[in-house]
Design goal:
Pfam families: ANTAR, GAF_2. The chain is an alpha+beta fold and about 250 residues long. The protein folds into 2 domains: about 10-180, GAF domain (Beta-Lactamase, 2-Layer Sandwich); about 185-240, Arc Repressor Mutant, subunit A, CATH 1.10.10.10. The protein has helices at about 10-35, 40-50, 80-90, 95-100, 120-130, 160-210, 210-225, 230-240; strands at about 60-65, 70-75, 105-110, 135-140, 145-155. Strands 2-1-5-4-3 form a 5-stranded antiparallel sheet, sandwiched between helices.
């Protein structure tokens, strides 16, 4: 209890920090929403992570592509790519573990590389790159794993409970922004493909005096016979006037 006019400063400070974090995350969501594309969104996420999560010196973002392949798509420094490549090379590490849905670990903290026993091969490589601690968060929406946000420091014990708390909130906002950007990109690609196939159908309809359905069937047949994506067949026809590439 406060006496002689004193206020409960720890509680007040705690509320102030929470208010500041809420404002920061709100601004983050608004800023990421305004990014023009997926890559710009990813770049915005890693840049904001360095400024938001306590203890962070570098940040990187791994993206799951096709549910199998993992690729580092955004970094704040080249050393992040080198650390991630070390994980890919040795097949172990906190980021890969965070992406493993079987383990269901959505947060992985690595406080001291010199004392690390879970991923000894990776820890040795990280130390060589002067990365001494890490914190990784799985990015997911409705059980769909999008990737991992990975934070790095050259200091041992750089990440504490506050880092993990703030990072979890940050990762949740980042996942929503990332998912939204990917969805919009897929819609843009779908519309572009529809227009492209429409152009190709129009060429065939005029050339062969066939219906739209018959023109589409010709495109599908050419795709199957040449084992070529339908979009590529359509693009080739629009560009060259030929239904399929000539075989050598």
């Amino acid at each position: 209890m406060a006496h002689d006019g004193e206020t409960d400063r720890p509680a007040a400070d705690g509320h102030a920090r929470h208010d500041d974090l809420a404002v920061t995350l709100t601004e983050l969501a608004r800023t990421l929403r305004e990014e023009p594309g997926v890559q710009e969104t990813l770049d915005g996420i890693v840049a904001a992570a360095v400024d938001t999560v306590p203890g962070t010196r570098y940040a990187g973002l791994m993206v799951v592509e096709g549910r199998r392949h993992v690729d580092t798509r955004a970094v704040t420094a080249e050393v992040v790519r080198l650390v991630d490549q070390a994980q890919y090379d040795v097949g172990e590490g906190p980021c890969l573990d965070c992406l493993d849905a079987v383990h269901e670990r959505r947060t992985v903290r690595l406080p001291d590389m010199t004392a690390e026993r879970r991923w000894p091969l990776f820890a040795r490589r990280a130390i060589e790159l002067r990365i001494m601690s890490m914190l990784s968060f799985q990015l997911y929406v409705r059980r769909d794993i999008l990737g991992a946000l990975n934070l790095y420091s050259r200091e041992v014990g750089a990440f504490d409970d506050e880092s993990e708390h703030v990072g979890l909130l940050f990762a949740a906002h980042a996942a929503v922004a990332m998912s939204g950007a990917q969805h919009e990109e897929h819609l843009v690609r779908a519309v572009a493909m529809r227009d492209l196939i429409g152009q190709a159908k129009g060429i065939l309809m005029e050339r062969h005096r066939v219906t739209a359905e018959q023109a589409f069937a010709l495109l599908v047949r050419a795709s199957q016979q040449t084992n070529t994506r339908l979009a590529d067949i359509a693009q080739h026809l629009v560009d060259t006037g030929e239904l399929s590439r000539r075989r050598p």
